Amino acid sequence: xxxxxxxxxxxxxGQLAGxxxxxxxxxxxxxxxxxxxxxxxxxxxxxxxLDVVLRSGTRIGGEVVDAGxxxxxxxxxxxxxxxxxxxxxxxxxxxxxxxxxxVGRSLAGVLRSLARAGSPxxxxxxxxxxTGRIAAVGADHCDLRRENGSLLSIRxxxxxxxxxxxxxxxxx
Length: 172
What we know:
This protein is of the alpha+beta class. The chain folds into two domains: 3-33, no CATH class; 38-164, SH3 type barrels (Roll). Helix content is 24%, strand content 37%. The protein is built from four helices and ten strands. A ten-stranded antiparallel β-sheet has the order 5-1-2-3-4-10-6-7-8-9. Strand 7 and strand 8 (141-145) form a beta hairpin. The radius of gyration is 23 Å and the shape is elongated.
C-alpha cells in the first residue's frame, strides 16, 4: 500500500479512537435532542402515571398502557382513554425518549379495534362529547352509531380523546 494511504488510514483511525472533541459534544447532544418527539417520551412512561391536558381543556391522568404512531392509551379508575397526540397541549411527567421500533397501530387502527369489539365509547371532538359505538373507520374519519340509531361521521383530525369504561386491556 502506498505511504499516503497508510498515513490517511492511520489519521482516520486516530480520529475515530479519540471520539468527538469536547467542543463537539454540546452540538451532538442538541442534534440528538431536536429529533425527540413527545410521543417518544410518552413511550418512556409505559406502566407509569401521566397527567395530560388537551386542547379542549380536558384533563386526564392514569397509567400509560400503550402507545402507537399518533396516539397513546391511559388507564384510570374510570376506564381507558385513547388520546390523539395532536390534541395534547401539555403532559407530564415525561420519561426518557423511547423511539418507536416499528410502525405501530395508528389512531385509525385503534378505532377499528374498538369497532370490532363493539365497545360503547365517548368521543371527544370539537368540544363535543359524542356517545355511541364505532361502526366503521375510513382513511380520515370514523362513523359513530349513536344510541338513537343515527350514524355520525367524525373526522379523525378532530378527535381529542376516545373513552370507554372497563378494565382488561386495549382491544387488539
